[in-house]
Amino acid sequence: MVNDVEKRWNDPPMLRRATRYVLAVLGATVLGAVISLVWASARPRCLDTHSMLCDAAARAVVGLVPGGILLAGGIGALVLAFRAWRAERAWPIWQGVAWFLFTLMVVYLSIVGTQG
């Protein structure tokens, strides 16, 4: 087992994999946000108003779909961190990815939660 105090966590291939993972989760989040915004703005209730988020259902979908994708990405990163730890590889990279995605989720949900 790797001694955590030693801090020999330099693993460029793992860092590239984690970077691709973050970019994939962020891409899925943007795609989910765009799809939910298009859905919300095309609803019959919203066509009469000039607001894309005209009711509670539209606000909930626009908030929860991208937030859920970020949450799932963060949980997935923690699972990958656990698997890397079990394989005695550089697990702190994945823990950092998870915290980054969780932070983005909280920021996004706080911004969307104040709209309305």
From TrEMBL:
Protein name, entry field: Uncharacterized protein
Transmembrane stretches, start-end: 21-40, 60-81, 93-111
Keyword line: Membrane, Transmembrane, Transmembrane helix
